[in-house]
Amino acid sequence: MSIEHHSISVHFVQTLVRAMEQSDIDARQAMLDAGMNPELLQLPQLRVTPEQFSRLILLAWQRMDDEFLGLGSRPCRYGVFSLMARQAINCKSLKSALYHITRFYNLIADALTLSLEVHGEDAYFDMRLTSPEQDMDHALCELLMMLWHRFPSWLIGQKIQLKEIWFTYPEPEHSSEYRLIYPCPIRYNQPVNRLVLDRKYLQAPVVQTKQTLLAYLQSSPLNWFKRQAYYPVFTRKVVRCLEKDEGFVSLNMEQIAAELNVTSRTLRRKLTEEKTSFQQLKDGIRRDAAIHYLSQPGIPVAEISRRLGFSEPAAFTRAFKQWTGVPPAVYRQS
């Protein structure tokens, strides 16, 4: 399918709203401007599209004039990232780009300290927040650690395969969402926030240009939130098979197992080991597809139900309410 099978937990909206409220920004109006219904904010199962969330965070940056969302010891004026990126594009390799990022932010942002070190075959990109207690929900740390991975990956034109990522805080309740953000094993309660990568990446050349950077900045931060989910091996294979199934009905567990050259029993066991199941994956993909379709008012609910393989709209309504806490019509009104 051509749509983006990805949605974002309302948890991240809630943390962003709290950050805006702490800075005396009208978060309710910002949500409305971003195409969200503030009345649905308290539903823990609710999910939003990457487009909605990117609009909200962009409004927060602009209205707070702070790319650190009021969660750092000092503000970071809106436009600082763009300025850094316009200089980083002139670097010759990933190593020089990462050193540039560390020098740039260490010079102008008192709220954090960045460093790049090489130890044996590994390279460490570390971040320490000056006042981590101000980032109570870890929203700033989560956003920046994602950015330190995705922007350099874009610079060299390939996804940097991380070996590990470290966080200084305990595992949060929403850690299941991290598989949509971080492509590697995660360690918590560490002395520093760290990206661990193979040092070979440091020699990769910067392939982007000033022209491609302009398009990148114009689409940011949306391009940060639309990346493919980082799934384990068999989960990823099943997701790919399901995404090719236009009607969500023509493929079952046995057919996918045959396509992957394993027995259905083996596939079921592998998915269990990866802490998921065939039905969970199918429901997750249909849920995100439904959220995408419902954000387009020109597609009737009955048509969405048919596209997602439900026998009737009533069955789709029951499933969507179970997934998100609200019926499709209510979600669409938001």
UniProtKB/TrEMBL annotation:
Domain of life: Bacteria
Gene3D superfamilies: Homeodomain-like
This protein's record includes keyword Transcription regulation: yes
A GO molecular-function descriptor: transcription cis-regulatory region binding
Keyword check for Transcription regulation: yes
Single GO cellular component term: cytosol
Classification via InterPro entries: AraC-type_N, Homeodomain-like_sf, HTH_AraC, Tscrpt_reg_AraC-type_HTH
Pfam family, one: HTH_18
HTH araC/xylS-type domain residues: 236-334
Keyword terms, alphabetized: DNA-binding, Transcription, Transcription regulation
PROSITE patterns attached to this UniProt entry: HTH_ARAC_FAMILY_2
Protein name per Swiss-Prot or TrEMBL: AraC family transcriptional regulator
Organism: Oceanospirillum sediminis
Record lineage: Bacteria, Pseudomonadati, Pseudomonadota, Gammaproteobacteria, Oceanospirillales
